[in-house]
Amino acid sequence: MDHVPRLSEAVYVGLCYKLGSPTEVRIRRELMDTDEVVGQPVDIMRGLDRMRSGSRREGCRLRTSDDDWMFWPPDHKVICDLSQISLYRISQHAVILMKCNDLPPGFTRLNMISQSNNSEVISSCVVINNKTYISSTLFRDNYLRFVRSCNVPLTNAFPHGPCSTYSMFQEADTDFAFCIQSHHWPKLALPWIERCCERGWPDQNIVDGILSGGFHVVPIGSTSENELEWRISFSQAKQKVFYSMNHCQFLCYGLFKIFLKEVINGQTNTAILCSYFIKTIIFWVIQKNASSYWTPDNLLSCFWKSFKLLIFMVLTGNCPNFFIPHNNMFRVKVTGSVQYLLLNQLYYLYNMGISCLLLSETIRPFFSLALFNRTLRVGTEESSIISRTDLDMSLFGELLIFHHTLQSAEELAIYIKQIERMIRGVLTSYQTLMLQYMTSCVLRNTAMFLQSCVYLNENGNKFCYKAKVTALLKQSCKFGYLSDTLYLSMYFYRTRRYEDSLSCLHKAQDRFSLPYIMYMDHVNVDMYKHYMERNTLGTKMRRAVVRNIDIYCDYSYIDELLFRAGD
After folding, report:
1. Which of 332, 361, 382 is the last residue of a domain?
2. Does residue 409 sit in the same domain as residue 511?
3. Less Cβ around it within 10 Å: N or C end of the chain?
4. Is residue 504 domain-resident?
């Protein structure tokens, strides 16, 4: 089937509904980034720095989108050569030297140069020829035990590649990759910098940001027998490259990923290809083609070019890593009879032409609609895809995935300090709203934390900071959702201030009955637009948005919810 711009535009619009419009994706990324910047100092104080990765971080919101996390000890520093050791203080940092000799490209051994205070790292060390190395196998197993000990749902975590994985729901997994960070750039990846300059993608400022962020090493070798090998991971770099893609490129990746899951892998019992291969292919195709090529009316051509590159890579048995091309990611997985069967499958789909997309349950509805209705025309402008009210609904719903539980008053101070620091910078409206929401959560959860704390005064009498808790909860209500007043009501109830509790409930009932209230995906669009159109996002959240309240097991809200032995 020849490429028809009309079909591409129909698929573009359909994917915007499934994966997100340009503004929806931007919202998701800005909220994620803001949450990470504000929470990082608290994470480090707790002992592990972290980064969210995977599909959800990139802006995808499919039912099967994985939620991936990377964790690493912040005082452990990987260096690429000994000259870099002068950049660190041996008394404060555990310095680790990469040794890539006689290993496949993209893999390394980790030689401990200075001592570590991390128990998981210490118990992962092995001595070979009077040199101390960190065993990737022991490191992975130690952190798997650590994950299982954190809370009850995680006791069922299982090893999956370099990760500890658990399934909260049947369709999506959460991966925890415990790793070690380097703030440098590996020598094997230096040619990537030149290639980006020659081809103009990604932009130089993106490349500079990637180089300053460095890379990670994750605990898995080129084969299962090599327990001293670690894989060089460019997850942080990949995320920044991914962010630099335009929306058509983002949707092309989403289209390819859906096609992989529902068609290519859906026809076999064992999935051979993973989304990382697809992402790598998209990166190569973008870098070899001008950005003007990636437009909504050309989406299917972009997909087809990417699909043909996949076939070529399977044919040759070589999928070069985007950052280290000498690292063939098919080296172990796509060989022999597996390679032969996969090539036949892909060649069969290739002979079907672009109509092979009809095999996908997700893509078929909007693709077939345009295919069989030659007069159908769709607008690709965002205003014709999603309304302002729906964007608000998406934004306020997105905030609900962020949780900010606190374990001490010191953590409150760190959070507030970070929020103040960000406020002094240049912010988008979505970042401003995120900081407002975080302030509300932090104040409320600090109040709940203090409520459970009983202190002794000089005379030994117990007292609770009731006035401070009340003040914090009232202040929280000034920043958060309209429904946050229910937390105040619960607090009054627990402290036997029943009249105040009822008063809060009556006020909440009156406000929840207003005609412009937005609850989840329920709203009177006309009323909401009439009353809220000219308000800021923060004002809309405080005056018009109602959400289910979250009850965390970390805190006590009302006595009836407390667990009692024997219950």
Report:
1. 382
2. yes
3. C
4. yes
**For 463, which DSSP code?**
E
Contact of 264 with 346, CB cutoff 8 Å: yes
pTM: 0.92
Same domain, 141 and 67: yes
Q: Are 271 and 395 within one domain?
A: no
Q: For residue 226, what pLDDT is reported?
A: 85
Whether 292 and 432 share a structural domain: no
Helices 275-288 and 299-316: crossing angle in degrees, nearest 10, is 110
* CATH code of the domain containing 269: 1.10.1410.40
Bridge partners (DSSP) listed for residue 52: 69
Contacts of 368 (CB under 8 A, 6+ apart): 358
Question: Distance between CA 551 and CA 128 in Å, rounded?
Answer: 51
Instruction: Please state whether beta strands 462-463 and 455-456 pair in parallel, antiparallel, or not at all (unpaired).
Output: antiparallel
- Phi then psi dihedrals of residue 135, to 5 deg: -75, 125
Query: Would 36 be classed as within a structural domain?
Result: no
Same domain, 176 and 118: yes
Tell whether 141 and 246 lie within a shared domain.
yes
- Non-local (6+) Cβ contacts of 555 within 8 A are 405, 445, 448, 449, 451, 452
Of the residues 361, 382, 403, the one at which a domain ends = 382
Backbone phi and psi for residue 480, each to the nearest 5 degrees, phi listed first: -90, -160
In the prediction, which pLDDT does 457 show?
A: 42
Dist CA 196 CA 240 (whole Å): 14
Residues in the chain, how many? 567
Shared domain check, 406 and 300: no
Which residue from 345, 368, 360 is spatially nearest to 256, judged by alpha carbons?
360
State how far the Cα of 43 lies from the Cα of 418, in Å rounded to an integer: 13
Q: Which domain holds residue 16?
A: 5-20+61-382
Identify whether residues 395 and 367 lie together within a single domain: no
**Residues of the chain with confidence (pLDDT) below 70:** 1-3, 168-172, 453-465, 554, 559-567
Cα separation, 23 vs 11, in Å, equals 18
Quick check: 230 and 220 in contact, CB under 8 A? yes
pLDDT at 3: 53
Residue 172's nearest CA partner among 242, 275, 36 is: 275
Nearest residue to 217 via CA among 79, 54, 39, 68 = 79
Instruction: Label the pairing between strands 174-178 and 67-72.
Output: parallel
Q: Report the Cα 391 to chain-centroid distance in Å.
A: 20
